[in-house]
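Per reviewer request, we include the raw input and output of the structure prediction for the construct analysed in the revised manuscript.
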Amino acid sequence: MSKNISNRTTRSQAAAIVERWLATGDFPNEMLEDVREHRAFLMELVYGIVRWKRLLDWVIARYVRRSPVPAQQAFLLVGLYQLLKMTEVAPYAAVHETVEAAKAALGERQADFTNAILRRTLREKDSLPAELARQPLGIRQSHPDELLERWTRHFGPGPTEALCAWNNRRADVIVRVNLLKTTPDDFLKALAAAGVGDKVCPFNAGKATTEANIEHRTKDFFPACFTLAHGARVADLPGYAEGHFMVIDPAAIQAVELLDPQPGNHVLDACAAPGGKTALIAERMRLKGQLVAMDLREDRLPRLRANLERLGCAAFAKVVQGDARRLRPESFGRFDRILLDVPCSNTGVIRRKPDVRWRFSKTGLTRIGAAQRELLERAAGLVKRGGCIVYSTCSLEPEENELPIAAWLKSHPEFRLRSFRQSFPPTSGRDGAYAALLQA
């Protein structure tokens, strides 16, 4: 296969994924899961289009009166994203290869339409920035107005614009050394010995927007965290197969820091998949005690088990499929500590999951909120007296974070808020997250 044909095939594949996303709202990450050939280029195209869709649609609307059908729109988005956001792709190649791919998939007439729009965009490319600068923030930074309005109310205009810019950056891959198997120094020595020492650098933790420690002190996990160079593959690093490190953002680590599990504890990780926090809990417990790792969805369990196996704690953690909202004390007894990493809107991780911005709705927030409250209620009956619950989300929304916790505590005077952590990405330099330590 020639390089040009390969390029066209990749663009056709990207257009097919984008078309399906436009038509069904299916998750792009799941559609990309099994891709192996030209993976980096394909991921850049798909995630970039999802990220910048509103801006790209604004460009399309300058030239056409009616919205194209999904199949046609997908090829236009593929071409426009290359022209406007992928500086490493030559403009001629972006137009030619996309048009040829559209011709093979849609026919001559549709390809001619695609060609006309892309070439006109190319001719007017230099004048677009000035025109775009006059557009509202939602178009300039490609976010829905509903999110911008609520963030402006909660955080103010400046922080909201900074958050949008953060969400549109390419996400860093952060790895944390698995202290059950190695040390940060030995991890770095192994990379140096393999000649890939330049592939990672120490993670530079910023200062969180809000960090309250009322009566609790925790050990910072961040010295064991490293940022992976863009373009490097996690699985290619020395020690991956041996489980010497895991991929996890430091914002997620904070929930385990608050939980502070100890050797000999009886611990429940109620929403465990894919297993990063479970492995951190096992590490803190030094594989001593009892750890139950539960997840509602059976299809997530194979990945959970595989991750725990690689990280060396599969024999320690008891993996269970089930709904923590239905769990009773007679199943596993009462726990010293419970981690509730509850389902949420994911607005703190839009940089990693760009489609989240387009799926957000107030109705969805209400529906998820009901599940969050049910999980808290059940956990209250499962924790020992003197034990604790850590409630955590990867959300920025008060309705999922401080507001439900404050309301829940009013109706549960037997618990008190001992500590909480809140990460606002532009300030903290890590994903958006919230975690509250509730002491029984």
